[in-house]
């Protein structure tokens, strides 16, 4: 598992993808921070900044995940990988962990944006930590979605576009609930909305129901990815 993890981390920095992700993430987060915090002065709200970052995951996360398993097919190394003396879960989790490491590392670098807020004002650290925790959880959930979609196609572009579509659906599904009069359907849409569950974290409160929900998405899509390769191994 460790060898696969190291290989994936090396691959991010031996190709343009890792640098493209880091640069895109930092540029987008910098723009959102300038517009939502620095430009608002006294009315600055860090929650608006992080909400914008979450919506940017629609295009950022696919950069990390689109090649994870499609590359194995393209380079014809999938058979070697599947017949190696490593469990399928270890293979999938190692790739997921590599993508999550890149994500969390870049998020950590982006925290440099917060320095002016502490230098020129008094900040509620718990609110910032709550936002960061929720972003890590949402990022992990979306990465697991991308890992799964990368495993079911041989084309990087298809993997990226399908990941964009699913992440976008997770983010906007709650918006439709407000205009739906049928209560049961509205409740279902709210339940599956990733963004609606983000609210409590913005107040520095750990919402354990949301935490379990985000982790459940990660576990579910990692499990589905393992099942894909179980079927492929014995096909």
Question: Uncertain runs with pLDDT below 50, 5 residues or more?
Answer: none
Mean pLDDT: 85
Main sheet specs: none
Distance between the termini: 23 Å
Helix content: over 70%
**Proportion of β residues?**
under 5%
Q: Give Rg in angstroms.
A: 19 Å
Give the topology string: H per helix, E per strand: HHHHHHHHHHH
What is the global morphology? globular
Helical region count? 11
Total strand segments: 0
Counting structural domains, the number is: 1
Structural class: mainly alpha
Please characterize this protein's 3D structure.
The chain has 235 residues and is an all-alpha fold. The chain is built from eleven helices and no strands. The chain has helices at residues 2-14, 16-36, 46-65, 70-74, 78-82, 88-110, 115-120, 125-151, 156-177, 183-192, 208-233. The longest helix has 27 residues, at 125-151. It starts with a helix and ends with a helix. The model has no long low-confidence stretch (mean pLDDT 85).
Helix and strand topology:
Blueprint: H1 2-14, H2 16-36, H3 46-65, H4 70-74, H5 78-82, H6 88-110, H7 115-120, H8 125-151, H9 156-177, H10 183-192, H11 208-233
Which keywords apply here?
76% helix; 235 residues; mainly alpha; 11 helices
Task: Give a brief outline of the structure.
The protein is an all-alpha fold and 235 residues long. The protein is built from eleven helices and no strands. The chain has one domain (2-233).
